[in-house]
């Protein structure tokens, strides 16, 4: 079993990597930041994330460029390849195609509201490639869903401190929520009705495999606290946000997020560099229809 100390240090490194994808990220540099030898750090990192460090960094850089390409149609592939550490445009294209099954230029032509990275198929040469598949609901249906089920506002948020647990992939997410709740209960925070539980998405299900999506399951804090083992401390950046209140079942979350991002694009808003998140206002098990009352929040420029 991986110790809480290891998890706490890897939490710091994951944030560091996210913030430095366009800088040089060597094993030696990252291991030094984590206060471990390169050999020891590499073993710990793979045990916690399920990926070797270099593979993780390459994947994150590819996914970062994918997000830019699908949101910014004017982005130049050659500039992105150099910015994110690839020796040439051809090496970047090969790495990109290995993940998505199509070239960066083809990827850029896709509509962000229509497509999602949700399956693997056999290519003609028998090798598995990641591809895009259309959502069942078309754009018009998703906009209609949003109009019928969401109350959307533009709100200004102040920077908010959080205590969090890192969760990679959808499997085991209930345990991550339970860890945060147990920690909050031990601190007496659940006695405060204003205490909120949230989930931050550091990756997008549109461009990252579900078993590799990194999330922070977190609790909002009203005072400064210290990290404890796998409970890390961070903050949600302040600024302008699209905030949409839903009362939905667990099965309707994907549809709601997809529709909200379509609404954002249709209304001329642009997502900022910060991560979207959910704020929960009830325990769905206590709801007569097992529904979640939840705010979906997208930081915008």
From TrEMBL:
<dbReference type="InterPro" id="IPR018060">
    <property type="entry name" value="HTH_AraC"/>
</dbReference>
<dbReference type="Pfam" id="PF06445">
    <property type="entry name" value="GyrI-like"/>
</dbReference>
<dbReference type="InterPro" id="IPR009057">
    <property type="entry name" value="Homeodomain-like_sf"/>
</dbReference>
<dbReference type="Pfam" id="PF12833">
    <property type="entry name" value="HTH_18"/>
</dbReference>
<keyword id="KW-0804">Transcription</keyword>
<dbReference type="GO" id="GO:0043565">
    <property type="term" value="F:sequence-specific DNA binding"/>
</dbReference>
<dbReference type="InterPro" id="IPR010499">
    <property type="entry name" value="AraC_E-bd"/>
</dbReference>
<keyword id="KW-0238">DNA-binding</keyword>
<dbReference type="InterPro" id="IPR050908">
    <property type="entry name" value="SmbC-like"/>
</dbReference>
<keyword id="KW-0805">Transcription regulation</keyword>
<dbReference type="GO" id="GO:0003700">
    <property type="term" value="F:DNA-binding transcription factor activity"/>
</dbReference>
<dbReference type="InterPro" id="IPR011256">
    <property type="entry name" value="Reg_factor_effector_dom_sf"/>
</dbReference>
<dbReference type="InterPro" id="IPR018062">
    <property type="entry name" value="HTH_AraC-typ_CS"/>
</dbReference>
<protein>
    <submittedName>
        <fullName>AraC family transcriptional regulator</fullName>
    </submittedName>
</protein>
<feature type="domain" description="HTH araC/xylS-type">
    <location>
        <begin position="11"/>
        <end position="110"/>
    </location>
</feature>
<dbReference type="InterPro" id="IPR029442">
    <property type="entry name" value="GyrI-like"/>
</dbReference>
<dbReference type="InterPro" id="IPR020449">
    <property type="entry name" value="Tscrpt_reg_AraC-type_HTH"/>
</dbReference>
